[in-house]
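Re: the 415-residue chain
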Amino acid sequence: MLANVLLNASVLEPGSTAFMLLAASLVMLMTPGLALFYGGLATKRNILGIMIQSFTSLGWTTVLWVIFGYSLCFSGGAGGIIGNFDKAFLNGVAPSSMYSNGKIPEYVFIAYQMMFAIITPALITGAFVNRVNFKAYLIFLTVWQVLVYYPFVHMIWGGGLLAQWGVIDFAGGIVVHATAGFAALAAVFYVGARVDKNSTPNSIPLVAIGSGLLWFGWYGFNAGSEVAIDTVTSLAFLNTDIAASFATMAWLFIEWSRERKPKFVGLLTGSIAGLATITPCAGYVPLWASPIIGIAAGATCYLAVQFKNKMKWDDALDVWGVHGIGGVLGTILLGVFASKAVNVAGTDGLWLGGGTFFWKQVIAVIGASVYAFIFTYLMLIIINAITPVKISAEDEKQGLDMALHGEKAYDEGAL
C-alpha cells in the first residue's frame, strides 16, 4: 500500500490538488451563502424555514453522496443514462486512487463534486419559500437528486449519453441551473400562490452578504471545473467575473430606466443571473464573449422575471427567471461562442461554423428542462400522497419558523 501511495504521489500535482481543495471549499461556502441570500429575501416569519432547507442539504446530500450518489454519477459504462453501484460507499476508492486526469486524488474530486450536488436542489427552495412542509422537502431532496440530478451528471460529466453525443457543459448550465430552475417552476405550479403575496425582504443587507458569498464561491464553482491549474482555469475565472459584472450593470440600468430609481436588490439579482448564465460557458468561450453573455444574461433574466410577474407565477425568489432561464441562455450561448482555440477539450460553436453542435446544445437543454419540470410536478403529486406537501393557510400566516420549527430568527423581546 505504501509503495502505491508513493507511486501515485510522484505523478500527483500538489498545486492542482491544493487548488481543487480550495475550490471545493468555495463551492461549499455557496450553500450557506445561498441560505443568507434566500433568508434575507424571505419574510421575517420564514427566515429559518428557508435557511434550514439549505443547511439540511449540506448534511443529507453528503450522506446520499457517500452511500451511492458518487457511484451513480461517476461509475458505469460510457454512453448510459445513469451509473451503477460499483463505487457505493466509495468502494474501491483508496488514498492512492487518482482522478482520471492523473493530477489530483480521487478523494478531492469526490469532495468537489459533492458540493455541486449539495447546492443544486437547495437552489429550488427559493421558489416555494414559506409553503412546503419540511418532511415533504426531505423526500423531495432525496428523490429529485437520484432521478434528476444524478442522471444528468452522469450523462454529461460522467461520460454518459449526452457526452457521447457531443453535448458539453463546463460547470452546470444544464446539470445545475436549467434542471433546478424548471423544477422550481413546476413546484410553484403545484403548491400554488402564497397567502400573503405582498411579502417583502426582511433584510436587504443579509441578501447582500449572501450574494457576495455566492459570487466569491462561484470562482471555485467555475474555475474549479477545469479540475487542474492551467490556462483554461484562469480563463474560466476571468470570464466568470466579467460576465457577472456586465450582467449586474445591465440589470441595474434596465430596472433604473423602467422604475426611475436604482434598486439594490435588482443589482444583486442581476449578479446572480450573470453568474448562472456564464456557468456552462466559462472555460469554453473566448474572453471577448463574456461581456456579451453578461449583458444578455442581465437583460433576458430581467425580462423573464417581469414575464413571471405578469403571468402571476408565484416564484417567490425568482429561481426560474434567474437560474432556469440563465442556465438555458448560457447553454445556448455556449453553442454560439464555444471555441476550440481557447479549450481543445471543447468544440467550435455556431460563430465558428459549428451549427450541428449549436443544435445539440439547444436540444439538450430544452430536453433537460422539460424532463425536470414534468418529473418534479409528478413527484410532488406522489409525495403528497405520502405526506402533505403544502402547509395549511394558518401555518403559512404564522410562518414556517414557529409553525414547523418552533424557533424565531430574532428575539424581539431582548434588549
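Confidence is low (pLDDT under 50) at residues 1-10.
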